[in-house]
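Dear H.,

Thanks for agreeing to be a second pair of eyes. The structure we're designing against is below in token form, covering all 88 positions.
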């Protein structure tokens, strides 16, 4: 497999190799691909979780279990203020 890299990416790879963090460009590229793979796995998990939450919300809405938007925002603002006070 042949890969063309921009000069900036080549410079980055070279700087990483010079730092001693990676023994070879192959090792560095494999580490990058593994990181991308992990990121994709996390994204997929979050996406699946979001889909489940949407389904729960739709079912609750169909059953009439809804909360007025103003109430939700008021409660969120109160929680935010509490966190600010705790942090301060």
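And this is the sequence the design step returned. I haven't edited it by hand at all.
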């Amino acid at each position: 497999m042949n890969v063309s890299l921009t000069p900036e990416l080549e410079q980055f790879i070279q700087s990483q190799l010079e730092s001693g963090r990676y023994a070879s460009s192959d090792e560095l590229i494999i580490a990058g691909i593994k990181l991308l793979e992990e990121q994709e796995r996390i994204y997929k998990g979050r996406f699946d979780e979001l889909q489940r939450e949407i389904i729960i919300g739709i079912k609750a809405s169909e059953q009439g279990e809804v909360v007025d938007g103003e109430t939700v925002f008021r409660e969120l603002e109160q929680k935010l203020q509490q966190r600010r006070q705790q942090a301060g």
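Two observations from my side: The longest helix spans residues 25-62. Helices lie at 7-18, 25-62, 69-87.

Warmly,
E.
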